[in-house]
Design brief:
Elements lengths: L5 H11 L7 E8 L5 E9 L2 E8 L1 H15 L11
Antiparallel strand pairs: 1-2, 2-3
Length: 82
């Protein structure tokens, strides 16, 4: 399936997992060796899981979308890996 952006892919994955009470979200944000920002988000739930990568400006958008989603009382927040 193709998505317009990583944020769209994230929202699709969250929607797909809506029937499962065991959704886990982990994310990692940083810079690659060439200086480009990178964000990786992993969602796992009872029916499967997704891994989403974003780069440069889209990485920041994905990071904000994940933080906003985790700030709401849907699921317990998983701390980012450092």
């Amino acid at each position: 399936m193709a998505f317009r952006s990583s944020v769209d892919a994230f929202m699709y994955a969250v929607h797909e997992s809506a029937t499962c009470m065991d959704l886990k979200v982990a994310y990692n944000v940083g810079f690659m060796r060439n200086g480009i920002r990178h964000c990786n988000v992993q969602l796992s739930y009872c029916g499967g899981g997704y891994s989403i990568d974003a780069y440069d400006g889209e990485a920041e958008e994905l990071f904000r979308a994940v933080k906003e989603y985790l700030a709401t009382p849907h699921i317990p927040a998983i701390m980012p890996r450092i």
